[in-house]
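Homework help board

Subject: predicted structure for assignment chain

Our instructor gave us this sequence and asked us to write out the predicted structure in token form, then describe one feature. I got the tokens but I'm not sure how to describe them. Can anyone check?
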Amino acid sequence: MHNYRIKTAAPSDLGEARAVMLDTVYRDFGTGYVPRWHADIVDPESFYLTPPRHTLLVAVDEHDGTVAATAALDARGPAHPPNPEWLATRYPSGETAQLRRVYVRPEHRRRGLARRLVDELLDFARADCGYRVAYLHTYPNSPGAMGLWRTLGKIVCDEREEVPGGGSGVVHFEIPFAK
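My token output:
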């Protein structure tokens, strides 16, 4: 049985956190590293640790001290393009707590880590007092993602159905913000 400690990432955690994120974009998404989409993965410190309204959390396996999962939040709303313009308007930067990089290593899945991390991210966003809404997008073929996000939020745009040509194929969610 593994026990996990959820904590704000420290600079010493960034190498392992980066590995979890990169492994996910290669293995689960099949995209590999794409600079315009994944700059935050290579430089998580300047994206998540330095800005005061952003954060990166890690779940540390207390058995061996390794990072088993990541979750990040920032104040950047969805950009247009590539996202539909109405989404960028509905979720503006500065007011939107965007959940990002909620990734769990396969051997640690189905243990509630993603949900625990999201709960901590939402607590962080509520404490900030400047956010009015929580938003995220996910790839529907990412293992476990759609099931998790459907239990935590509501679909606001499924690009596969709502955007001509299927858009980028992502599904956008809004997560209830009030506690």
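Reply (TA_rk): Your tokens look well-formed. For the description, you could write something like this. The mean pLDDT is 94. That's the kind of observation they're looking for.
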